[in-house]
């Protein structure tokens, strides 16, 4: 092929492609709405407010809205949908959580303070539940070889009035009544 023909063919193909954006601009696109979940930007699982992006371990935070939305009634319900964490049979109303294959005996915390009693505690009045997977002995002391579970309680909100209550009864006759009030003073 002569040089002039190759140049002409190249220019013709470029000219045909150059007109395409004008055709694409005339089409209309329907509006797309993207929804997502908002996660609190920091955590108290490491005993200080640290942005989630800086936590060097596997961490799951389940907020109050998600607890209500999914109908979680106790920690067993909550960890059932958390990767790497499950429940095993405990005694009485004791929560027996297994973190990455290691059964927990002393890895429960409320607002970062060890909760050695480990008896059944309702999820009512919690702001969020933080599940930290992996060894944590440097942060939490004894135990914590598989992980730790920290329950963060609700904080009072200045200048707002709010009240809520919860009542539950099961088929074995156990019942639970809980209420909280936040009032501006």
Integer tally of domains: 1
Which strands sit side by side, in order, in the main sheet?
3-9-10-7-8
CATH superfamily caption: TonB-dependent receptor, plug domain
Radius of gyration from the alpha-carbon trace, in angstroms: 27 Å
pLDDT < 50 runs, ≥5 residues: none
Number of strands: 12
Question: Which CATH top level class fits?
Answer: Mainly Beta
How is the CATH topology named? Answer: Ferric Hydroxamate Uptake Protein, Chain A, domain 1
Please give the largest β-sheet.
5 strands, mixed
Distance between the termini: 91 Å
Please report which band the strand proportion falls in: under 5%, 5-15%, 15-25%, 25-35%, 35-45% or over 45%. 25-35%
What oligomeric arrangement do these chains adopt? single chain
Summary of the model, kept short:
This protein has about 180 residues and is of the alpha+beta class.
